[in-house]
Write a structure and sequence with these properties.
Elements: H1 3-19, H2 23-31, E1 59-66, H3 75-84, E2 94-100, E3 106-112, H4 121-125, E4 131-133, E5 140-142, H5 152-156, E6 163-165, E7 170-172, H6 178-182, H7 188-192, E8 198-204, E9 230-232, E10 241-243, H8 256-277, H9 282-304, H10 324-339, H11 341-349, H12 352-378, H13 387-406, H14 414-437, H15 444-453, H16 455-478, H17 481-504
Parallel strand pairs: 1-9
Antiparallel strand pairs: 1-8, 2-3, 2-10, 4-5, 6-7
Helix pairs in contact: 8-9, 8-12, 8-13, 8-17, 9-10, 9-12, 10-12, 11-12, 12-13, 13-14, 13-17, 14-15, 14-16, 15-16, 16-17
Length: 514
């Protein structure tokens, strides 16, 4: 073949070669084939489970869970427990189940842990700033040495992520094994999964989340904390699956010291308010102020018993910019100081006007503190702790117990306690009946807990409320301090039970789990 004949052939071959792709390009095109719409069969053998680069300024690390690969073996749970040295009853990763409904039923296991939210509720609620969200990685880390064990982050998190350690008296949670990640190693759960169902990905931050969007069926709506975990599945889960434990009734933690603290401090605030206005002899008014101060201080002392690390309680003011619990603690500190003023002023001046004035100041401080208590629970966004429910409950308690205590010296005030107690009893009965009748009610589960698990306590509470309200009415009509005392004791006992139900029947939101 002559050189003249070779030139066209060489030119054709060179043109063909210029159109050929490298082996890497061919592999990439095959791996991301939009027509196939699935990964190659052996992709799991070379696919990376952690990113090879660090997140950029508008990115962060996040868990990605392939539900189709999750078998519920709990290897991730065991690995997390072992690597982090958790207590026997402590778990930072759980495995739950979704039940598929409709013409094609199915069972889907789900592994869950901390979602390292963009706007973490745990960090926003912590009164001692014991949470840190890394600006480089987006990982939400708990600072164990700063924690006082108040468990408010447990109440704030809608995914039941932070866990209280009885042994250590603090809360702890998943930190995505950040030490391993920084060394280029996969977190324990990622490394342990035999099917590669869990991976670490880099995700963009700052995206808008729809109000009705949730991570998986049954999870709290994502617009609250903007969780970053991504659950992927070939199945359509939304609208076709429900959590296997959705109908399960369970009691939440009772938080007994807080139950007593709420009742006693609200009684103290109400007593100052009605005591300042009551037309009673100065000595009686002084006794009322001392009783109100004692009730307030006792309630605050009992609240410290709730803490896992009570000696660190002095740090609780640090989170006042974001945490309602921190603001409540500051408000009650101010209230306690005002509560000590009336007896001191009377001792120094002996002037009834000054006594009444300082009691009024204490009442105002008490009202602010009770309002902060309301917001502490409303801010968790739990349906059972909605603004109407908490505000009505706390206001009726403040009025009923405050006016009732003062009515021992001024019997006509028992009529106010009657109206407050009767209003609360009727409102409580009506709302529970309404919630039981409607499965779509936001507090249906809580109503069932009180109706089916706390049956005897609920019955006793209602009997005590009825006894208290009728005794207050009779005490006001016949001006009987004895009947008023019976009414006060009955109502206080009923409200202590109610405060325990306030916590145990809360039915807080959580991911599907054991």
């Amino acid at each position: 073949m002559s050189s003249g004949e070779l030139q066209p052939l060489l030119a054709a071959l060179l043109r063909e070669q210029s159109r050929l792709k490298t082996a890497v390009e061919e592999f990439s095109a095959w791996h991301a084939d939009p027509i196939a719409d699935q990964e190659p069969v052996r992709a799991k053998h070379y696919k990376k489970l952690i990113p090879l680069t660090k997140p950029l300024a508008d990115e962060q690390y996040a868990f990605e869970v392939n539900l189709d690969q999750c078998t519920g073996c709990k290897a991730c749970v065991v690995a997390c427990h072992s690597l982090n040295g958790l207590d026997d009853d402590e778990s930072w990763r759980d495995v739950g189940t979704l039940i598929g409904t409709g013409p094609d039923p199915f069972v889907q296991t789900v592994t869950t842990a901390c979602h390292h939210c963009e706007d973490p509720a745990c960090a926003n609620g912590c009164p001692v700033l014991a949470y840190d969200k890394s600006p480089e990685t987006g990982i939400v880390r708990h600072l164990d040495d700063q924690c006082i064990g108040c468990s408010y982050c447990v109440m704030k998190c809608p995914y039941d992520v932070p866990k209280f350690s009885e042994q250590k008296g603090i809360v702890r949670k998943c930190d995505m094994c950040q030490d391993r990640l920084s060394a280029g190693e996969a977190p324990a759960c990622v490394q342990a999964c035999p099917n590669g169902a869990i991976a670490i990905r880099i995700v963009k931050t700052g995206g808008m989340v729809a109000m009705d969007e949730s991570l998986i069926p049954g999870a709290f709506r994502s617009d609250y904390t903007r969780p970053t975990t991504r659950y992927v599945s070939a199945r359509t889960l939304a609208g076709t699956a429900i959590p296997a434990d959705s109908g399960q009734l369970r009691l939440d933690h009772s938080h007994s010291p807080l139950a007593w603290m709420l009742a006693l401090t609200q009684m103290g605030a109400g007593t100052f308010a009605f005591g300042a206005l009551a037309s009673v002899p100065p000595q009686a008014k002084l006794g009322i102020s001392i009783a109100a101060a004692a009730s307030t201080v006792l309630g605050m002392i009992l609240s410290v018993l709730h803490l896992g690390q009570p000696l660190k309680a002095w740090r609780a003011f640090l989170g006042w910019r974001k945490s309602w619990l921190s603001r409540e603690i500051i408000a009650f500190g101010i209230f306690a100081n005002f509560a000590a003023l009336p007896p001191l002023v009377w001792l120094l001046t002996g002037d009834e006007a000054w006594l009444s004035g300082t009691m009024a100041l204490a009442a105002i401080a008490g009202a602010v503190a009770v309002a902060c208590s309301v917001m502490v629970y409303v801010d968790t966004r739990r349906p059972f702790w909605s603004m109407p429910r908490v505000a009505v409950s706390f206001a009726c308690t403040t009025v009923a117990l405050g006016a009732g205590l003062v009515a021992l010296a001024s019997p006509p005030l028992a009529a106010i306690s009657f109206f407050a107690t009767a209003t609360f009893a009727c409102w409580d009965r009506f709302t529970q009946w309404q919630a039981l009748a409607s499965t779509s009610s936001a507090i249906h589960t809580s109503a069932r807990v009180m109706h089916e698990i706390l049956t005897k306590q609920t019955f006793v509470r209602r009997i005590l409320l009825a006894t208290g309200s009728l005794s207050f009415l009779c005490g006001a009509i016949i001006s009987s301090p004895s009947l008023t005392a019976i009414a006060l004791v009955s109502t206080f006992a009923a409200l202590i039970i109610d405060r325990h139900h306030f916590f145990t029947a809360c039915a807080g939101p959580r991911m599907t789990g054991p």
